[in-house]
Amino acid sequence: MASGEMRSRRAPSSKKSKPERSRVKSRSTLPLQSTKSLSQGFRFAGGSPSSKSSSMEEASDKNESKESKTNVAPVEEEDTGSLEVNGDSPYSSRTTSMEERYLEGEEDGSSEDATSQLPAVSPSRIESRWSDTSSYGAKKKVQAWCRRTNGDWALGKILSTSGAESVLSLPEGEVLRLSTDSLLPANPEILDGADDLMQLSYLNEPSVLYNLQYRYSQDSIYTKAGPVLVAINPFKEVHLYGNDYIEAYRRKAVDNPHVYAIADTAIREMIRDEVNQSIIISGESGAGKTETAKIAMQYLAAVGGGCGIEYEILQTNPILEAFGNAKTSRNDNSSRFGKLIEIHFSSIGKISGAKIQTCKKITLNHFLCLHIIYSSIIFPN
Ligand SMILES: Nc1ncnc2c1ncn2[C@@H]1O[C@H](COP(=O)(O)OP(=O)(O)OP(=O)(O)O)[C@@H](O)[C@H]1O
C-alpha cells in the first residue's frame, strides 16, 4: 500500500487583491512506520468476539452502502450536460455556465433527487454511530498498542497495570509485561473506519495506520485528515469514479472523502471568491499522484467543460506520459519529471485553457501541483 495526500488551498492571485485566507497547516511530521510492516489483519485477529462482530456489522453496513453506490441510477441526459467523461470524450454541447448549473443543482431540488438515488449514509445512522460513546469510558483503557521487536504494532488487551508496568495479552495468546509508558491507547471500536482522522480520540501512529488499513480493506481508499485528503493507492480498479459519482459530488449528494470533493471545493471557492486555487498532491514514487491528478482533472473537465478544450487538455496526459515516463523499481509507469499543471477558467466557470510545465524530479518524495486559475476575462466558448 502506498499512500499520498492532497490538499486544496488558495493560490496567490495576481488578479485580485483580496486578503488570503489562513493556509492549511502542514501535518505533523512524526515519522510513520511503513504500512508494509503492519501484518495483514493484525487487528481483526486480535479483537474480542464481540468486537469482531461489531466490526463485521460495520463492514457489512459499509458493503451494503458500497453496493448501492454501484447501483446509482444513471443521471438523465439533460442533467449530465457536459459531464460525459467516459468513452474518451467529456464533450458536450450544453453551454450553461457552471455557476448556473451549481445554482440549478441547489435550487431546483434536484440535489435531493440525486441524494435519493445515492448510497449516502442517512444522518440518523451517522448520529447514532458517533453518538454511542457510552461504553467509551469503560473501554478506553482496555486495549492498547505495543510495538513488537520487529517494529510491527500489535493490539492487545491490558490484563493488569501496576505502577510503571502493565501486562498485555496479544491475540496469539502471548502475554507481555511492558512498561506502561511504552503503550499507546487504542481508539474505541465505534471509531473503526472513521472517514476523518480528526474524529479519532487518539491520533497516534498505530491508530492512524489501523484506520487507514481498515478503510482500505473495504475499498475506501480516501480518508480525510481535516482539510487534507489521504489516498491509499489501491493498485486495482475501484468503483469510485465515473459520471454518476461526478454528478453526485457536483450536487453535493455525497460527502464521502474523494478527490472529486477536493476538486469541487476548489472550483466552488474559485468562483465564489474569484481567487486562484491550488491542489497539491504529494507522495512517494508510485503513491498515485499522477493518477490522482488525472482524476481531479477529469472532474474539472466534466464540471467546467463544454467548449471542447477540456478534451484536448485531458489528451495531453498520454502524450506526456509517452515521452516522459519509464519503468522503475517502484512504479511501472513512473513520471520522470515533475509537473505543474495550470487549468484556466473563465469568470463564468468554463475552462478556457491550460498550461503544463515540467520540471526536474529531484527526490523520490515529490509534489504535483494543479493550479486552478480564475480569470476575469470572458473567453469565447
Ligand atoms: N486511484 C487509483 N486506482 C487504481 N490504480 C491506481 C490509482 N492510483 C494509482 N494507481 C496505480 O498505481 C500506479 C502508480 O501510480 P502513479 O503513476 O500515479 O504514481 P506516482 O505517485 O505519480 O509515481 P511517480 O512519482 O513514480 O510518477 C498506476 O500506474 C496505477 O496502476
TrEMBL record:
The protein, known as: Putative Myosin-1
Binding locations of ATP: G283, E284, S285, G286, A287, G288, K289, T290
Residue span of region Disordered: 1-133
Comp. bias regions, Polar residues: 29-40
Family: Belongs to the TRAFAC class myosin-kinesin ATPase superfamily. Myosin family.
Pfam families the record matches: Myosin_head (PF00063), SH3_VIII-1_N (PF25369)
Residue ranges with Basic and acidic residues bias: 59-69
Keyword ATP-binding included in the entry's annotation: yes
Gene3D superfamilies: Kinesin motor domain (3.40.850.10)
